[in-house]
Amino acid sequence: MEKVIRVGLLGAGTVGSGVIQVLEMNRRQITERVGAQIQLKTVLVRNLAKKRPQLEGYVLTDNIDDIVKDEEIDVVVELMGGLEPAREYMLKAMEHGKSVVTANKDVVAQFGKEMFAMAEKHDVDFMFEASVGGGIPIITPLKQCLTANKITEIMGIVNGTTNYMLTKMTECGSDYDEVLKEAQAKGYAEANPSADVDGLDAARKAAILASLAFNTRVELKDVSVEGITKITPDDIEYARNLGYVVKLLAVGKDSPEHGVDVRVHPVFLPKEHPLAAVNGVFNAIFVRGNAIGEAMFYGQGAGSLPTASAVVADIIDVSRDIVNDTFGRVRCTCYEQKRLCPLEETESSYYVRLLVDDKPGVLGLIATAFGDAGVSLKSVIQTQRNIVDHAEIVAITHAVRHASIQAALQELKGMPVVDEIRNVIRVEKEQV
Amino acid sequence: MEKVIRVGLLGAGTVGSGVIQVLEMNRRQITERVGAQIQLKTVLVRNLAKKRPQLEGYVLTDNIDDIVKDEEIDVVVELMGGLEPAREYMLKAMEHGKSVVTANKDVVAQFGKEMFAMAEKHDVDFMFEASVGGGIPIITPLKQCLTANKITEIMGIVNGTTNYMLTKMTECGSDYDEVLKEAQAKGYAEANPSADVDGLDAARKAAILASLAFNTRVELKDVSVEGITKITPDDIEYARNLGYVVKLLAVGKDSPEHGVDVRVHPVFLPKEHPLAAVNGVFNAIFVRGNAIGEAMFYGQGAGSLPTASAVVADIIDVSRDIVNDTFGRVRCTCYEQKRLCPLEETESSYYVRLLVDDKPGVLGLIATAFGDAGVSLKSVIQTQRNIVDHAEIVAITHAVRHASIQAALQELKGMPVVDEIRNVIRVEKEQV
Ligand SMILES: NC(=O)c1ccc[n+]([C@@H]2O[C@H](COP(=O)([O-])OP(=O)(O)OC[C@H]3O[C@@H](n4cnc5c(N)ncnc54)[C@H](OP(=O)(O)O)[C@@H]3O)[C@@H](O)[C@H]2O)c1
Ligand SMILES: NC(=O)c1ccc[n+]([C@@H]2O[C@H](COP(=O)([O-])OP(=O)(O)OC[C@H]3O[C@@H](n4cnc5c(N)ncnc54)[C@H](OP(=O)(O)O)[C@@H]3O)[C@@H](O)[C@H]2O)c1
Predict the structure, then answer these.
(1) Same domain assignment for residues A242 and A356
(2) Is A230 in the active site?
(3) Per-residue pLDDT tens for B215-248?
(4) What are the chain A neighbours of B135 within 8 Å (beta carbons)?
(5) Are residues A174 and A205 in the same domain?
(6) Which of A189, A314, B59, B95 could share a disulfide with A193, CB 3.0–4.6 Å?
(7) Which ligand is closest in space to the CA of residue A310?
(8) Residues of B tagged active-site
(9) B229 part of a folded domain
């Protein structure tokens, strides 16, 4: 008789319902592929009184012990979100010998170390493919397919809300507030959009990706973060004219000189870069390794069924381990302790847009100020833009230290001809 | 003491040398990641007398028995290429209880069934990630990450040579013979380019991808193939004006009505399609599943180190199985026997380019001929193109059966006003 693997589900919201749907609609395939039946047994809900037609036939409970202490249950799938009680419930499940699958980037980015230690202690699996990039396979590729590589760089469009907004701003020339309203109307952005637009959601994913790519623990607090709220249609137009698109990127770099450098911020990306064509709510993660060269993984970064695709893939992976009586086949990837590069030491090119007095000689003054601060310029242009008595100057710098650009900006701020530093955005260099 | 896993390598050419290099340069990482040392022990070469500085320190042999009968060797890596003796040697290795890793698309596409049966019989792994898409992870994603999905479509740019040629034709307007010479000069195309330009190489990969995606055995002989030799700069220009790019695609579709339909041919691809931006020698595979929606995997489809990245990932995967004393964790994926859709039943839109007499009423005659054959048109345009007394007509059809378009072409051929059917190319429909 076929083995049956029983699942307890914590939370049946957007993703949880998707998981139930995928397990049902692809039941026959999944059974063949695993060599065992995967059966959802019990679902934890907050309010037992609420009508949930999609949960008919399953045991419902509002008591976590009914799942973690159920000896029949092999796998606990956490899809409630948030730090607590999600963290506590997952730890409990592992203590009771159950493998855990989650989509919870908050817990993984902040308490990953604790989770992996607990999994190791109790000989169970802890899987989190859906925590980054929704349905896109990226965690398994990093743990398996790319594992022959030393990875030097990982760059991702990992937040669909902000990518949708930037795409709309690019395509329609609309301004930030307009596209935010539109994104909210379409359900892509929350009423309080801060986690998305301020970059916090992307930062959690950056921490997870960097930990896996560079084999050293990177936590949310280690990621420097800047959101998209200051991006204007003018910046996007300058970018276009200079051959770039503006994207919010999660960036991780690892080099012998600087150590591990992880950040989230808007970037001018050369329009030939593979990530530049990733538009709307789509996500993609670009990886550079010392054997594979460049690779990219593209797909839907959110949504009920796409995210469930990743969660159920993890459930299948765990089930295969159970069928084959093996655990922890892939060891914890953070076997090193690398130096984290402080923000001031990071290097980048920058786009700097200034509002200046429209007088002869200003361009020269500005260029000299950059030079005095040790920042060499790749290009500098001055435009009129219908502003009485004023002009805009847009400078693109060569790669400089964060500290140097800060010094230059300090200098510029003090100059009488400079009326405003309108924006400062990092520029990703062309591929070679 | 750390476990040591010993590898025998068959063939140290482009990819084999890459494997040796990757194992050396990333030795420390790999050992950490596997929890065991991976040691290359013996290399099979054809000519022992040849100088091979990169093989210093390894045992060389020209006798396969020195590898397959060596009890110390756990994994045999086949990188000789071709059908025989590669097939024979891999079977022998498995008979002797060794897991096999290969990049050999020829053997997998033609003798996959035999290989998997042998692996199952002897409780060993048979891995072939590098056989499709070079370094790009696609086999593991199909076997693991996407396994919660019913996959309905897979489309790939899986031949770098032809993609390089089509990209050059698109960017520079050069003609076929010119870009072929250029590709040969750069080492991207062989002296005899047939396997690439006639689509055979892509067809092998199509068979492998379809077998994994649709869970039914598809072999090389089941794939209908058409190459790029008839593509002209004119076709590419018409494509551009109509909003398409021309790509050579490996296409697999699975539907309840038609069954499994696998082919390789040039395609007019809407320029918004994620595959449309894949240029030069890069490869990418696009997958559609009933949970994940669309996903794409992008990277370098060939080359010594990128391909070695995939081969070594497989070696690591096998080694993890050995360390954990498990085998065949992922079962053979071909557990179904689906109907293969005959070419005549396949459905597609088509681009048809005709040379016709330049007289009033011709456009009407042509349109009527299509209609009479049951082919409805989406658009039809007539151009002069500086051809005395002649004009060109370009028609784009709605989706029709292959048999219907053949009937229409037969009809057109017989018409006195039609001087030549210049090209017929499938058109991929826009994404919704
Ligand atoms: N949505 C996506 O596209 C997506 C993509 C990738 C990752 N994720 C991650 O997936 C997780 C779930 O997201 P979601 O979008 O599915 O959220 P959601 O729609 O808000 O669903 C969460 C569910 O968990 C339930 N829940 C919360 N706290 C609970 C508790 N203490 N006890 C019992 N049930 C509880 C909620 O019940 P009530 O209905 O009673 O509040 C709700 O049904 C999050 O970690 C999220 O970051 C989501
Ligand atoms: N090159 C790529 O980018 C790439 C990408 C994906 C997959 N692959 C696949 O990888 C495999 C190897 O390709 P490759 O490009 O590395 O080919 P290659 O450069 O021609 O190397 C093949 C090597 O195998 C040796 N060999 C052939 N037959 C042998 C025999 N009977 N006994 C001992 N040694 C033998 C050859 O030795 P001699 O030097 O004596 O002839 C040569 O060194 C092929 O299956 C290919 O399809 C290649």
Answers:
(1) no
(2) no
(3) 999 999 999 999 999 999 999 999 999 999 999 9
(4) 291-293, 295
(5) yes
(6) A189
(7) 1
(8) 205
(9) yes
Is the Cβ of B254 closer than 8 Å to some Cβ of chain A?
no
Provide the 3-class DSSP secondary structure of residue B276.
helix
What's the gap in Å between the CA of B295 and the closest CA on chain A? 4
Q: Could you tell me if B63 and B126 lie in one domain?
A: yes
A293 → closest Cβ in B147, B295, B300: B300
ipTM of this complex? 0.95
**B36–chain A nearest CA distance, Å:** 11
Residues A16 and A114 in one domain: yes
Q: Which of A213, A218, A368 is nearest to A285 (CA)?
A: A213
Q: Give dist(CA A68, CA A95) in Å, integer.
A: 9
Q: Is residue B334 part of a domain?
A: no
**Is residue A207, in this structure, part of any structural domain at all?**
yes
Nearest to A305 among B135, B291, B309 (CB): B291
**CATH number for the domain harbouring residue A109:** 3.40.50.720
Point out the domain boundary residue: A255, A288, A323: A323
Q: Are B199 and B207 in contact (CB under 8 A)?
A: no
Q: Are residues B164 and B176 in the same domain?
A: yes
CA distance A395 to A377: 7
Q: How many domains in chain A?
A: 3
C-alpha dist (Å) from residue B413 to B299, B379, B418? 42, 20, 7
Scan for tokens 């039946």, then name that residue: A37
Residue of A307, A309, A312 best suited for mutating to test ligand 1, as the one with most atoms within 8 Å of CB? A307
How many Cα atoms occupy the beta-carbon half-sphere of A325 within 13 Å? 2
Structure tokens at B257: 């009505």
Q: Which of residues 278-297 of A touch B (CB under 8 A)?
A: 289-297
Say yes or no for a CB contact (<8 Å) between A146 and B137.
yes
Residues with C-beta less than 6 Å from any ligand 1 atom: A 11-16, 44-47, 79-81, 85, 103-105, 130, 134, 302-303, 307
Statement to judge: residues A169 and A286 lie in one domain: yes
Pairing of strands B244-255, B259-270: antiparallel
Cα–Cα distance, A92 to A105 (Å, whole number): 18
pLDDT of residue B389: 86
Range of the domain at A407: 343-427
Q: What CATH number should be reported for the domain holding residue B215?
A: 3.30.360.10
Question: To 10 degrees, the CA torsion angle through A49, A50, A53, A58?
Answer: -50
Statement: residue B432 has pLDDT above 60: no
| Interface residue A423 vs chain B (CB under 8 A) | no
pLDDT tens sequence for chain A (432 residues): 679 999 999 999 999 999 999 999 999 999 999 999 999 999 999 999 998 888 988 999 999 999 999 999 999 999 999 999 999 999 999 999 999 999 999 999 999 999 999 999 999 999 999 999 999 999 999 999 999 999 999 999 999 999 999 999 999 999 999 999 999 999 999 999 999 999 999 999 999 999 999 999 999 999 999 999 999 999 999 999 999 999 999 999 999 999 999 999 999 999 999 999 999 999 999 999 999 999 999 999 999 999 999 999 999 999 999 998 887 777 778 889 999 999 999 999 999 999 999 988 999 999 999 999 999 999 999 986 667 889 999 999 999 999 999 999 999 999 999 999 999 999 998 654
Name the phi and psi angles at A287, rounded to 5.
Answer: -130, 140
Residue where one domain finishes, among candidates A291, A323, A355: A323
Residues B36 and B87 in one domain: yes
What is the Å distance from ligand 2's center to B304 Cα?
11
Interface of B with A in 181-240 (CB under 8 A): 215
d(C-alpha A235, C-alpha A142), whole Å: 34
Pairing of strands B59-61, B36-44: parallel
Whole-number Å distance between alpha carbons of A419 and A405:
18
State the smallest CA–CA distance between residue A358 and chain B in angstroms.
41
The answer to whether residue A289 is domain-embedded is yes
B102 and B84 within one domain: yes
Report the CATH number at residue B351.
Answer: 3.30.70.260
